[in-house]
Amino acid sequence: MADRQLIGRIAIAGIVVAALATCVVLLNGGEEPQAETVAVVGEPTGAAPSREPDRTITRTLSQPQPVSNDWRIAYELAGTGTATVVYDSNGLGLVHQESQVTLPWRKELTWKNTGTPPTVRLMGQGEGAVECRVAVGGAVVTSEKSGPGEVATCAGRLAPS
pLDDT tens digits for 39-57? Predict the structure, then answer.
């Protein structure tokens, strides 16, 4: 019985709220209230100052490259004229020879890191003085100069990284 009385009272309250809302709308004529116009004194009458167009800055984000632990080897012979070059092409003792290369000469190789530091070997003999250099990862690890007609030899086992 108490539940029926409560439901009846809630229904009557809803009807009263709806009636009040209808009265408010009818009294205002169904229109939205209008804002009053206000005059502002002391504002500049000239055109607004010009401004530069907006600038859009875009940046391309690149994916990070996986870090390689391979050996990056660079062989170099400096000098003038031509030379005969002998170098280890894979870090395992397999030598490669090139004749009559024009100096300065450079060869870049990538060797797989097998866990054991490889041995680098570069020899150059030219008409004049020759300097050989071996760089690993951009850092020179060995270099040697020779006199005219002599062989410049850069060789050694790379240090573990």
Answer: 666 655 666 667 777 777 7
Token pair 């009559």: residue: 100
Whole-number Cα distances in Å, 156 to 92, 135, 142, 145, 146: 12, 12, 8, 16, 17
Per-residue tokens: 88: 């280890």
Distance separating alpha carbons of residues 155 and 95, to the nearest angstrom: 12
Q: How far apart are CA 21 and CA 27, in angstroms?
A: 10
Contacts with 79 (C-beta within 8 Å, 6 or more apart), sequence order: 103, 104, 124, 126, 128, 129, 130, 131
Give ∠ CA 148-89-95 in degrees, rounded to 5: 65
Segment 18-38 shows an average pLDDT of 63
DSSP letters, 79-122, are ESSEEEEEEESSSSS-EEEEEEEESSEEEEEEE---SSPPEEEE
What's the CA dihedral at 68, 69, 70, 74 to 10 degrees?
Answer: 90
Beta pairing class for 82-88 and 151-157: unpaired
What gap in Å lies between CA 118 and CA 159, rounded to an integer?
A: 9
Q: What is the pTM of this model?
A: 0.54
- Tokens for 2, please give them: 């108490």
